[in-house]
Write a structure and sequence with these properties.
single chain, alpha+beta, Nucleotidyltransferase, domain 5, 6-stranded mixed sheet, globular
Length: about 500
């Protein structure tokens, strides 16, 4: 790529919004734009989006960033790269037009399909092939549900099956292509072969021709079409670089490259990953491709992250009406929660609002609130949610350490939740580990920007781009409250869900 320019655009198309950040070669943000994405839950366990909304938000966010940058500087943009919410996908016709709403990663209507897949291929083979233990999160089982039960008439049309990256790349370049690190969370990729898996495609009832081409992260997807350039206020012909899922991009944006450190994305979901140079599987984690070619990430994932905080503020407390009302309510709860002692006055939350992935892989799991008494108020519940998520992270990280024999000394945090100093300190105290903020809270968009910068030649290679564009932010170390959380974890939290698991399963089946 020889186009002039010293700026790149990193795109983070997440579950609720698209963010576009213009980065320079030192990893400094020069301009940014943001646009919301609507999320629909028409029935229990159902989560859908208009895939065209992904594109409208992406174009609007890039356009806003370009406008903030100014026309002259916008011509300095050399490449753009997409990171995105994972496991969400849409069925389209051959021209890329959606045939129905997209299914979002949180959609859990496919429990029966998980059981059918296990009965057909076996849980062990599903895990070994895809790197993911069977559960409702991967697209594979949602796709089985969609084509067998929800919309069987679409199967005969042989629709294209596109993850968020593939759908956006089609809009940007006209080509059906996605990144290996974007496609593998779908659960349709043979991780050892680095290709679509014929047994898994057969299980889903689709063929290879219905899927996009697979590219390594950092490779050229194509160039920006004139109509897409106009929508984004960028110049036509701009290089569009293969990106990665938001988790893998966040690891890159946090500078996670070797053992001893894990990234921790405090977003809608709580996703943590430890890098690995070899492919391995364990019930303690799911295995993903890293954004750096040839690497893997051993990930834990709690689907009820800041989503659970939003549930408290919006659904339970009713603060979701005026502009900024939810944010102001969270700020008030945060200020009050600082004054509450560790342990939330004997209130404990197990944050399984969307089931649990690692280490239990139980889609029937549900949230648990233990110890509720009359003196507890909203701030107690707010703090207990933050503490429950932190204790759950301790459980997950301990499982990865035991499975790999490698200790994690530091958690690099990013995402919206990392802006909370209270949450960062609770994480340090509850896990007993050093917690370091990524210098940019937009580590996912930065990871996409790093891939674009390396591909565009702003740095000699990807490791050099990571070194030049990432930095460390504030550090939080375990304090006196660690002893409280040690007892709370050992004596209450670690055994709480296993003690209630059978009852939770019965409740789910009533």
């Amino acid at each position: 790529m020889t186009e002039p320019g010293d700026l790149v655009v990193g795109i983070d198309c997440s579950t609720t919004a698209c963010k576009a950040v213009v980065w320079d070669a030192a990893g400094r943000p020069r301009a940014e734009g943001r646009a919301p994405i609507a999320l629909s839950s028409p029935t229990p366990d159902a989560y859908e989006q208009d895939a065209e909304g992904w594109w409208r938000a992406t174009a609007a966010a890039i356009g806003a960033a370009a406008e903030a940058l100014g026309a002259d500087d916008a011509r300095r943009v050399r490449a753009l790269c997409v990171a995105h919410q994972r496991e969400s996908f849409v069925l389209t016709d051959e021209d890329g037009r959606p045939l129905r709403p997209a299914l979002v990663w949180m959609d859990a209507r496919c429990r029966a399909e998980v059981a059918r897949a296990v009965a057909t291929l076996g849980a062990g083979r599903l895990h070994t092939l895809s790197g993911k233990p069977p559960c409702t999160t991967p697209s594979l089982y949602k796709l089985m549900f969609l084509l067998a039960r929800e919309a069987p008439e679409l199967g005969a049309r042989r629709p294209m099956v596109l993850d968020v990256h593939a759908f956006l790349v089609r809009k940007l370049t006209g080509r059906y292509a996605t990144s290996l690190a974007s496609a593998d969370p779908m659960g349709l990729v043979d991780m050892a072969a680095r290709d679509w898996s014929e047994p898994l495609l057969g299980l889903a009832g689709i063929e290879r021709a219905q899927l996009p081409a697979l590219l390594a992260p950092g490779k050229l997807c194509g160039t920006l079409l004139p109509e897409a350039a106009e929508a984004c206020s960028l110049r036509p012909g701009l290089a569009v670089i293969a990106g990665a899922g938001d988790g893998q991009a966040a690891a890159l944006g946090a500078g996670i490259a070797g053992p001893g450190r894990a990234y921790l994305n405090l977003g809608t979901a709580i996703v943590s990953g430890v890098p690995s140079q070899s492919y391995c599987t364990s019930p303690s984690f799911r295995t993903m491709y890293g954004a750096a070619v040839g690497t893997f990430l051993l990930e834990t994932d709690l689907k009820g992250g800041t989503f659970t905080v939003d549930w408290l503020v919006e659904r339970l407390l009713g603060h979701a009406h005026g502009p900024g009302e939810s944010e102001r309510a969270i700020a008030r709860l945060e200020a009050e929660a600082w004054r509450i002692a560790a342990g939330s006055e004997r209130l404990v939350v197990v944050p399984y609002w969307h089931g649990v992935m690692s280490p239990y892989w139980d889609d029937d799991a549900s949230g648990i609130l233990l110890g509720l008494r009359g003196h507890h108020g909203p701030a107690h519940l707010y703090r207990a949610i933050l503490e429950g998520i932190a204790l759950e992270q301790r459980l997950c990280t301990s499982g990865v350490e035991q499975a790999t024999g490698q200790l994690v000394a530091e958690l690099a945090v990013m995402g919206g939740g990392s802006k909370s100093a209270l949450w960062c300190q609770i994480l340090a105290d509850a896990t007993g580990k050093r917690v370091v903020r990524a210098a940019s809270a937009e580590a996912t968009a930065l990871g996409a920007g790093i891939l674009a910068a390396a591909a565009a030649g702003l740095h000699p290679d990807l490791p050099a781009a990571v070194r030049a564009m990432t930095a460390r932010g504030d550090t939080f170390v375990p304090g006196p409250a660690q002893s409280v959380y040690d007892r709370l974890y050992a004596e209450v939290y670690a055994g709480l869900y296993p003690a209630l698991r059978e009852r939770a399963a019965r409740l789910a089946k009533l």
